[in-house]
## 1
Amino acid sequence: MTGRRRRTAAVVASVALGSSLLAACGGSSGKPTLTWYINPDGQDTLNALADRCSTDDYDIDIRLLPASATDQRTQLARRLAAGDSSTDLMSLDPVFVPEFANAKWLKPFEGEQADAVLDDDVLKGAAETVTWNDEVVAAPQWANTQVVWYRKSLAQAAGLDMSRPVTWDQVIDAASQEGGTVGVQANKYEAYVVWINSLIQGAGGNILDPSTVEDGRDAKVTIDSEAGKEAAAVIRKLARSKAAQPDFTTSNEGTSLGQMFPAEGPGEFMTNWTFVYKNYEGLVGKAGGPKDEDELKDLGWARYPQTVEGEESRPPIGGIDIGVGAFSKHPDFAQEAAVCVTNAEAQRDLAVNEGLMPARQSVYDSAALKDAYPADLLALWAESIDTGGPRPKSAFYSQISSAIQSVWHSPRQVDPDTTPKKSADFLGAVLRGEALL
């Protein structure tokens, strides 16, 4: 391909005004410019992909969205609600795909392009995030999941066999017994709902009845269930245990990282996303990381803990899907570009360069990934994405998430006997329009 331009993350902000002018005039004469709104993860590789996937027919110009997923949704929703024709490509958190598709803001893929973005190579958990009303409305670019990261020496001292499935109860007890901690995301934000949802699904339940979830406001709320009570019991147990970290009620993806290799103490068990491995690998001998390569070898990983012993866990599913704006002046070019920036080569580069893991099994099997990551970790990630549990696939997910956060936070006040019932009542009222967030 020719006509490519080099772009780097460092110049994204400085060219924003110039890019607007190009996007405005590019469609009327000369070579069109497609605008791609990206989230901040993996900017260097995404800029390279924009260059590689630009063609003689069009160029791809990158714009940077805010860091917060909620703010990303807000900015894109405002543009699309106004029928913005310059939103050609967009990087979407999977939970926002149903809302955008239901509002007719995404142009569905059809025919050969639909087959290209959602073939049998795409892992099940990732594939479930890009369909709506039996249409393929986005393309999986990378997938995310959580495992339990831990110090091998800590688990060994507690007598916990991490080669077998472990429960949340066992992990909390082991950490408490040995003076370690358990790191989670329990601040009042989306990642806390991710934890709650996986706990509920791991006990065989759901926040909403899956058979009615696409019914929107008429979906059946099922969080007040035995599974909801089991989830609440795990949260309460950790909150009341010695294993709870000092910032438990405000914890996020980054706060517990430093507890794995503390200056003193046995370390932790931590549920967190795939970025953790490269994070610690890059911190050997530095603050917050392992003191040397030998200590890095004490980092272990295992399947997300079971909520109920004997019930397969349902690891969280995240990542990024690429949508094409329904109002784009160049929808055919935009969909062609979306196929390019999500193909196996693109997913390989994102994984190797940025630690953003593939949505395709073939990429996990590639030599490039096997050179970059331990084989058993790759297998664990692929398995977790393939068998993980997505959050409710609802056009009203933003309201669902906020309603759950408002009742389940603070985690120190969660009670199995009252919290699931209270949250079911409030969530139902919110969906019916009888309560405000």
## 2
Amino acid sequence: MSLPDDLLAEVDALFHDRVAARTAPSSVWGVFDRDGLIASGGHGDRGDGRAPDADTVYRIASCTKSVTAATLLTLVAEGRADLDAPITDAVPAFAEVTLPSRDAPVPTLRMLLTMAGGFPTDDPWADRQESIADAELDDVLRGGLLFDSVPGTRFAYSNTGYALLGRAVAVAAGTTFHEAAASRVLVPLGLEDTVFRAEDARGYVVTGQRDDDGSWTPQPMTGPGAFSSIGGLFSTVRDLARWARHLASATSTAPEPGPLSPADRRLMQQAMRVVPPSVVPSSTRATAYGFGLFVEQDPRFGELVSHSGGYPGFSAHMRWSVEHGLGVVAFENATQAKVSAAADRALDLVLDRIPGQPVPVAPGVERTTAAARDAQRSVTTLLQQWADAPQDPAGDALADRVCSPNVAMDQPYERRRRALAEAVARVGVDLHADPVEEHATVPSQLRWWLPGTNGRLRIEIKLAPLAVGLVQTLTVTAEPTER
């Protein structure tokens, strides 16, 4: 897909302005679709006097969690791990943790994947734990943990939970977590620039910075350890866009092959645990957590999948539209830069410029999509007949074939014909014109607009669950031009 130059310039300006405002020394972004990276850009000084590009290496921090989840799911698919097994099976030291109540369950892998282990949110502390050894993590567990809730009952973003999942991966795979993630996910997908050690990176590795009263202070680069599964990866815009595109392809009719099945990739992107509004107070969207990924519900664009990453000296974000496969990735090298704000705005800009929102096309719903299109054509013919020959009984006979019986019962055809005539007259619409916009959030529902001399006519249909594809809701609304 190609995007207009003025749109890409607007996206680029978002990141340029952040460097100009000293949010971070450098900022880099990329826009991708189902075929690959569409465009990218970078601003500031990455550390060698040059602006970053799509192959410049940054820490991606908690974007790593999606790779952790995917690696675990490959082991589940092979029968080497069980999502409903207690974490004590893989980490015996956890048995020494006192649970918050007598009837509290030991957290399972599924609970930990969905951030429902019951532990307190722990970003500042956990971000400094990456390099500790497994034995040190065991010592932490033997010292006891605090709980904010009974395991399995509510969401709380927990790095400790994902550190435990990293150990579960290692035990099930019979190797280190880092080797399992690389051999099972990264290498098979050709993500050669996504690594756990800075010295293994092929491109220029950016140094993380902290703003200390107007001057940038370099932050130490930690190495692999027991907490790498929470956010230890380095990557590039090109590689992370490739990873996000692979995940996004699972919701298309032609999913890419890969080490994780399309069904499991779709599972990762399901809303499984509600994220309370207090956790994301600036968000205007309902948000949930899947397996290593956030899932947002947008009234205009449908489901958006995302994850941010924040490490000392770094900020990262990836997000995409489930329906379109369009997405944005972005990195900056400053503590608490929150590049997610710019990436969020960038994807909104891109999706806003798509002419209409098509009926979602996803595996298993092609039949429903086709039924909605057939119903749209039939309803178009029905409305034309009602408008051109309101007294002709053929129009009502067609309505009986197109609609389920409740439509006439909910509002008689005579009233529907009269309301249609009033709406057509109000906006001066030609019912034989082609739609100027379409929108659908699910395959069984479709909304489209016809142009008029004084506004637009909105037509909306919802299908009953019957295989014959009958219309159970038919709404026609005039939308006059504001004066």
